[in-house]
């Protein structure tokens, strides 16, 4: 198993803002990626990844009336290991509730949004990858446009979900695009590991970024650490700042 690259404070927003390669990434219209006849399928490893990776994209799709399916692969219950304040039993209930509130804050049509919970084990998705691929395949249609985490994103669950989603999409004749989430933490701005040739920017207005920020702050459990258990917040301010640029990046 490769070492966990998600350590320390990572690459700063200031460094990313000075990136030559990121500045050169072309923009693309999300409504071109998801044409009127298509359904968008967002596959999130944990409750919050759908907001962190594509909260702006979701707003644009909802405003255009595109049908959407959200799949939450795990319930995110392993985010605070050893914590008495945030035990697994509490997180299992709270984290999906936080996602629901975040989606409401984005302005998504909760009465018509189809949302599936996979029930896979947080931090252990790679051991269940074949089952996950079959589960995803069951819920995909030919012509769907899938958005999920990048297969090299640095978190084992993100990578397993990326691989399983890509394979399921291939099997049914859907299109799969990947989103960097933790990449912004461990990668360097000119990093050759990042597939910049596949990258496109989805441009966001200030209002859309503000709404995404409001949605991110629905995840109270992730904004809080547990000092008694030696746990820092998962979503520290420097993590959130990197994910609230005036664009989101998708790897085609």
Automatic annotation (TrEMBL):
Molecular function terms, GO-annotated: hydrolase activity, acting on carbon-nitrogen (but not peptide) bonds, in linear amides
Classification via InterPro entries: GlcNAc_PI_deacetylase-related, LmbE-like_dom_sf
One Pfam family here: PIG-L
SUPFAM superfamilies cross-referenced by the UniProt entry: LmbE-like
Official protein name in the record: LmbE-like protein
């Amino acid at each position: 198993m490769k070492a966990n690259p998600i350590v320390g404070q990572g690459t700063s927003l200031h460094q990313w803002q000075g990136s030559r390669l990121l500045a050169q990434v072309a923009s693309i219209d999300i409504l071109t990626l998801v044409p009127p006849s298509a359904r968008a399928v967002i596959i999130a490893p944990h409750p919050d990844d759908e907001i962190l990776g594509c909260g702006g994209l979701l707003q644009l799709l909802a405003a255009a009336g595109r049908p959407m399916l959200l799949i939450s692969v795990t319930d995110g219950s392993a985010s605070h290991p050893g914590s008495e304040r945030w035990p697994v039993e509490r997180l299992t209930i709270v984290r999906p509730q936080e996602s629901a509130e975040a989606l409401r804050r984005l302005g998504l049509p909760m009465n018509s949004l189809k949302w599936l919970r996979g029930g896979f084990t947080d931090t252990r998705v790679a051991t269940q990858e074949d089952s996950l691929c079959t589960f995803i395949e069951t819920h995909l249609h030919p012509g769907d446009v899938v958005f999920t985490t990048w297969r090299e994103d640095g978190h084992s669950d993100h990578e397993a979900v990326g691989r399983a989603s890509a394979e399921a999409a291939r099997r049914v004749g859907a299109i799969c695009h990947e989103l960097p989430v933790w990449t912004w933490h461990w990668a360097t701005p000119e990093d050759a590991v990042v597939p910049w040739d596949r990258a496109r920017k989805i441009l966001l207005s200030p209002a859309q970024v503000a709404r995404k920020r409001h949605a991110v702050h629905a995840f109270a459990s992730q904004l809080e650490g547990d000092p008694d258990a030696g746990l820092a917040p998962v979503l520290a301010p420097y993590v959130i700042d990197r994910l609230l640029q005036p664009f989101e990046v998708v790897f085609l």
